[in-house]
Automatic annotation (TrEMBL):
This is Rhodanese domain-containing protein. It comes from Pseudomonas aeruginosa. The keyword Signal applies. Keywords: Membrane, Plasmid, Signal, Transmembrane, Transmembrane helix. The chain crosses the membrane at residues 30-51, 63-79, 485-503.
Amino acid sequence: MRLTWILGACALGLSCKAQAFPVVIAGGAMLLGGPSTVIALLIAAGVFGYLRFCSGKHGKVKSLALGFAAGLAVLALVLNDQRASQLDANFIDSGSPAERITEIPFREVALDEQAQMPTAMDPAEFIDSLAKRTIRAVRIDPMPEPFFQDFGNGVSAKELGKSPAKLLALIRESSVPVVLIDQYGSSAAAISEALKARLGIEVRFLVGGTKSLHPYGWKHLANEEDPRAILPSQFPKVIAATPGLQIISDTTRDQFEHDGWLHGDMISDLPTFLAGLDNIVATIGDRPILISAAEGYFTGNTWVILTLLRSRGLDPQFILPTEDELLVKPPYYRHFKNDERLFGNSETFSYLERKPRVVFLDFQPAADWATTRERIRGTVHIDMEKVARGQMAEELAKLDPTATYAGLGYDRRSSYHSLLAGEYLSEKGAGWLGINTEPELFSRERLSNPDLYDGWREFSAKARNELGEAGFKAVSLLGDGIKGYLLFSALLALVLTIAFCATPTVAAKGLVAVAALGVFQVSSWTLEEWVRADVPTDWVVAVQLTTGLLSGLCWSARRRNRKRRFTVPEGVRPTELPEKIRLLAEAAEHGFHVLPGVVITPALVNSTGRQLPRWARMKPTIVRSAARSESCEATTIGIYNSLYAAGEHQVWASAAQVIAEIERSGEVGMCFVQPRIQGQTFGVAMFGTEADDHMIICEGGHADQVTAGTAATSRFAVPIWDVNRLDPRDRAVCRVLLRLQRVMGATSIEWARSLSGKLTILQVSTDQLGRIGLKHRISKNTRRFVVAPVAHTGKLEAAVLAACAIKGEQLTVGRYRLVQAKSFIGGLLSLHQDISSAVDYARMSPAIAFPSAAIIEAFETEHRERLAQRTLWLPDLSAETEQLIAAVTHDLGRVRDVYGRFNRLATVAAELRIKARIKGFSRPLSSTVLGAALEEAAADARGDLLERMGCLSLNGFAIQGKSSLDGDDLLGGVIQATDSPMAWLKDECAVQVMYELKRLRPLLAEIEQRGAVDSLLAALDVSVGTDTDSRVAALETVAMQSRPLPLANLLSGHGRDPGRNAFVWGVPAKGVCLRLASKDEFQPGDALLIDRAEMSYLPLIARAGALVVREGSALSHLMQHARRLRVPHVVGADIGDQKDSALVFISASGEVCRA
C-alpha cells in the first residue's frame, strides 16, 4: 500500500515538473513512456481509489468526489497539453520568405535543352575536374547581392545583363577553364549561350545546376561505412570535444528562410561552396572540420563537399546523411540545453513587469522588423541576412553579458535562431529566459492602457518575483551552479516524500500533494531566477524522482522494521498478545518511538532451547508484566510488578516470577523484556475523567515516582483545546497523546523523555472509564452550540432525546442538551441534503421552488412504514445487556432517520423563512389535539392520562416514575389548525418522537437497573461530559441568554485549574465534612489520610468517603484506581496540625481544615 502512495507521489512530481518546464519540442514523452503513461496512471489511480475509498458507507459521495478529482486531473492535463501545443505551434510552422526582387535578363532553359547544348558538362565530369583543379567554378547569383557569406567567384545575373565585364575578368584571370554554375542550371545555360552568340566565347556550364549533384553524390560518391562519419545524435559531443572546430553548414536560401537551418558561422549554399572552394580551404587552414549538410533538402551534397575537401588534402568529419529524409530531424532540435524553455504572452508580461533588464532578441528580416519594432519594448533586432552570412556571434558579442535575454519565435526560423542565440549567451554567462512563441499576439496597449491593464497579473508577477528570489537565495546557500540547484531539488523531493508518507490520513496526503504542486511551482520560478545556472530539466526531474523513490523505499523499510519491534515466540499469533504489548507494537507502527521488546510466555520460560537477543543478554533490562486485562481495563492498573534484571539468568528468573504472580490472580501469565532506561524524565499523561474530562493532565518525575506515587512530581493540566499555549516540551507530550487517541483510541500513556527532548512511549492505555464523548471534546470543541432551556431529569433521558436528532447535531453534558448552531450556508446545505433524501428532484417540474407537497407525501409514506415496524417490534427484557443496548441504538437510529430528518427539514425551512405552501392544505396540530384531551381531565389525573395515552412531554421525559409536565411542549387545550405544511410536519415529528420514547421506556429502565447506563451512553455517542457543579452554573447562564457559544466555553465552566499544587478531583462544590483517619484508625466512610500514594492503600480506598494525600502523584496507579472507584480525593493537601479522628471539612478548592 505504501509503495502505491510513493509511486503516486513521484508521478505527481513528474507532472509538476512537466508543467513547470514544458517539454514541447519532443512532446515530453515523460520519463516513464509518453502520454500513454499519464492515461495509465490516471486509470490505475481511479481503479485503486474506487476500490480503496468508494465502498461501504457514503460510497456514492466518495465516488462523486473521486470522479470530480479525476475530472480535474484530466482537465489539467488537457489544458496543459493544449498550452504546450499552442506554444509549440510557432516552433513548428515554417518561416515566410523575405521580400525578393529577382530580375534575370536571360531566358529560361529547360533541363532537356540544357543536356543537348554543346557547352554542357555533366556532374561526373564536373566533380572530377574540380577535384583535379582542371576547372574553375563561377556561380551565377539570381539576386543582386549574395544572400550567404561570399567566398568569391560569383557574379549577379542582373549585373551580367547590363555588362559582362566582371565575368570576362574572371575568365581572363583564370588559368584553367571556367564552368558556370547555379542552383538549377537554367541561368548558367542561358549565359553560356549568350557569351558564345554575342562575344564568341565558349564557356561551359553544369547541366541541371548544383541540384543535379544531390542524386549524383548518393549514386557515385556515398560511403556510409566511412570511418569519419558520425551519427546526428553524436554531433554535440564532437563539437564539445573538438576545440577550434570549423563547421561548414550547407543549405539553400529557401531552406534557410523556412527552417532557419545553420550550424556554426560558415554558412553557404552549394554554388557558393563550389565557387569559393579554394578560398574556403585557405580560410580554414589546419583547423579540424565538420561537414553539416545532412539536414538539407539535398543531402547528397554531403558527399560532394567531402570529396572536394579531401581532394584538397583535408580529412573532415561529417554528419551521416539519410537519402530519403528531409527537414526536420528531431536530433537537431534536441541536444540543446535551452530547447525546452518556451513561454507565451502571460510570461512575457510578467518578465516586462518584474525584470526591467530583460532584452528580447528579434531575428526577423528587415521588412518584417519595421512593422513590429514597437510591439515589445527593450527589443534588439539582428537581421536574418546577417545570420545567414555567419554574423550572429559577432552581433551577440556586442550585447551586455550581465543582462537577461529572451528570444522571439515568430516561426521555425526565428525560433531556431533564438535557440542558438540562447546557447551562445548562456555559454558567455548571460541570462537566458527562453523563447516567446507568441510575440505576434502581444500588444503594448495592455501595458499602457489602464482599461486593459490586469491588476491580478501584476500581483502574480510580483509574487513570482519575490518567491523566485527567495528560492534563489535558499539555493545559493547550498552551493553555486548546477550542483546547488540539484541538491536543492533532492532536498525538496526528500522532504515532500517523507511528509507524504508520514501523514496518516488520505485528506492529509491530499494537502501534502497540493502543497507539492505549489512548492514545485515556486521551484520553477527559482530556476527562472537562476538563469545562469542553465540546469537541464531532465536532470532535475531525474534527481527528484530518484530521491523520492529512495526516500519512499527507506520509509517503507522503516515501517516494516517497526512491525518487528517485538520478538514474539513461535506459535503465538499477534491477536493472542495481551493489550499492553499489542498497543505498544501498534504505536510503533504509527511512527512513535517504542523500545524493542521480547515477549516471554510460560512455555518459553520452561523451554530448554530458550534464547534472548544480544541486547537483552548484555544490557540492563526491565521485565514487565503483560496480563490480558492490563491497558484495556482500569481494574488492574499497577497490580502486577515489573522487575529490573541484569544478565540472561536474572531475566529468566524475573520473567518466571512475574508470570507466576499473574497466574496466581487467575489470568494467563505473560511478560515482555525491554531495555532499561536510565537518567531520563518519566511521566504519565492522560485525559481527565468526569469532573476534569476536558483536561489533559500530565506529571513527570524521576524513575517510577509518578506511577508508584512515592514522591512529589511536577504537574500541569491544560484543556484539550489549549495545548498550543504550553512550552514546547510539555506540548510535545500532549500532542503525542492526542495523536495516539486519534489513531488508536489511547486515553493515557506512560512516557520517558531524554535530555534532548526525545519521547519514548512506555505504555499505552485505552480504558474509557469516565471518558465518554472524548472524541467529541477533541474534534468539536470549536463548534458553536446553544443550550436547551430546560434540563432533563437525568443524563440518560437527555442522551436518548439527543440521539433522536440527526447525528452530531445534538450533544449532551449530563442532564443538559446542546443544539449545534448552523450558519446560513450550513442551513442551506442541510436543507438540500434532507430534501434530496426525501424527494426525487429529477421527476419534478423545474418550476417548483420548494416541493412541499412531495415532502409531506414522502413523510407520510415513511411514517406508515415506521408504524408497521412499531407493531411488530416486541422487546425481550430478559436478553443480555449488550443485546438490549444494541436494540435501543438500532431503534433510535430508525427514529433519527425518519422523524429526526424531517424535523430538521421543517425546522431549517422555518428558520430560513422559506415560503412552503400547499393549496388547500389545513390540518390540526397533533400536539393541540393531545393538549385538548389533557385539558378536559382533572389536574391530578393529567399524569396518569398522559401515561395511558402513550404520549410524553419531550422536556419532561423520565425513564423511571411518571413523566413531568414541566417545560411541556404541548399547547393549551384549544385545538389549532395550520395551513403551513412545515409547521404541521415539525409538530407531527415531535409527537411521534414522544410515542417512540414511551415505547422505549421499559428497555431503558431495564438497562438503567442493570447499571449499564455508561455503556448505553457510549453506544449512543452523544455525550461530551458530565454536569459538574461548575458546568451547571455556566450552562444555566448560557441557557437563559440563548446565545451560541463554542463547546470549549461550555465545558470549561467556572472551575479551577487542576494543575495547582493541591490536586482536587470529585469534591463537590459545597465540599464534604468527614472524619480524618490514618490507615490504622480508618473506618468505612472516613476521609483516609495517606502519606504517600502507594499501592498498599488500594484495599482501603473503595470504602473511603474521600482521600487526603499528603505527597505523591495525582496520576499514580493508586489515584487512577480512586478515579475508577469515583472516590473524591485531594493530592498534595496541607492538613496543618490536624490529628487522627478529627472532623475536617474538605473544600472544592482542596483546602482541608477543622470542621
